[in-house]
Amino acid sequence: MEPNSVFSNTVLEGRVALITGGGSGIGLEIASQFGKHGAKVAIMGRRQQVLDAAVSYLESHGVEAIGLQGDVRKKDDASRVVNTVVEQFGKLDILVNGAAGNFLVAAEDLSPNGFKTVLDIDALGTFTMSHAALQYLKKGGQGKSSLEGGVILNISTTLQYSAEWYQIHVSAAKAAVDSITRNLALEWGTDYGIRTNGIAPGPIADTPGRSKLLPEESGLSEKDVTPFVKIGEKWDIAMAAVYLTSDAGKFINGAILVVDGGQWLSKPRWISKEQIREFGRIVEKRSREPQSPSTAMKSKL
Ligand code: COA
């Protein structure tokens, strides 16, 4: 059972949020937690049945929700969905760009169109939706430098910080998403007071992404992939989303919050603490000892 939220259930009261990719996984949990913290939510996705099931789930938890079918890659879908949210709920305060595409493929087997498809969903989709939402996210008038406009939250990853097997397309796409986050934070933060931030989740249990990236056909468990694996819950990402989109995050703009239990920093411990305690100071002491002329000569060569 998920822990209780540490936030008051009114921190998002009166806000209207649109979550792309909100029909399942992390996006649905964000929609659910936004609703439980007072927001009205619209979820966007490509499959109507998935949206219908998600809206029923949200409503069964007392969340006021609508599902709007559309593809983030299509400019017309983006405008139609954003306009419908405003028609139905009267405004738009928060846009979460959660829609993403992913599959495992070796770089040499990936067609340029396969590469483009993921760039289109993740990077172009994030920009297209943000662009369509801009007119409604501008609050407090143009030219305001205080951060009192709407909020954009982009869901990213950590794999682009280094490199990842069979993920060249996703890595390139998420690097672009992070770049969009920072550039919108600069331009729209300055001009319109819109805060744009990102969340970079690590592996999260019970999500479509996880089942795609560790397919059961592989016969592998999480521990086979990395001994340092730390698996988060969708709740962990949703709480970070509540923090960044509520007034708790009112001075945060252009940040990309890694929510992965520190996994991306993990590396094998190459020597034990006991060994370091044993000889760490001995090595240091030796390094301060005067060197004999022959050793000094050798170290110069
Ligand atoms: N391996 C290699 N190439 C693949 C592939 C795979 N598993 N899946 C799709 N492609 C390629 C296709 O071959 C095609 O390229 P081509 O025209 O050169 O043959 C290209 O990608 C587009 O495929 P298509 O099936 O037409 O794309 P789509 O728009 O219908 O679907 C996907 C997009 C492929 C990203 C699909 O997985 C998707 O809809 N994902 C959304 C959900 C998701 O991934 N969630 C997890 C998020 S972490």
Automatic annotation (TrEMBL):
Q: What lineage is on file?
A: Eukaryota, Viridiplantae, Streptophyta, Embryophyta, Bryophyta
The record ties this protein, via InterPro entries, to: DECR2-like, NAD(P)-bd_dom_sf, SDR_fam
Q: Please indicate which superkingdom the organism of origin belongs to.
A: Eukaryota
Listed under catalytic activity are: a (2E,4E)-dienoyl-CoA + NADPH + H(+) = a 4,5-saturated-(3E)-enoyl-CoA + NADP(+); a (2E,4Z)-dienoyl-CoA + NADPH + H(+) = a 4,5-saturated-(3E)-enoyl-CoA + NADP(+)
Is NADP tagged as a keyword? yes
**What's its top-level EC category?**
oxidoreductase
**The protein's name:** 2,4-dienoyl-CoA reductase [(3E)-enoyl-CoA-producing]
EC annotation from Swiss-Prot or TrEMBL? 1.3.1.124
Which keywords does this chain's UniProt record carry?
A: NADP, Oxidoreductase
The record's listing under PANTHER family reads:
PEROXISOMAL 2,4-DIENOYL-COA REDUCTASE, PEROXISOMAL 2,4-DIENOYL-COA REDUCTASE [(3E)-ENOYL-COA-PRODUCING]
* Keyword field contains Glycoprotein: no
The UniProt entry, under Pfam families, shows: adh_short_C2 (PF13561)
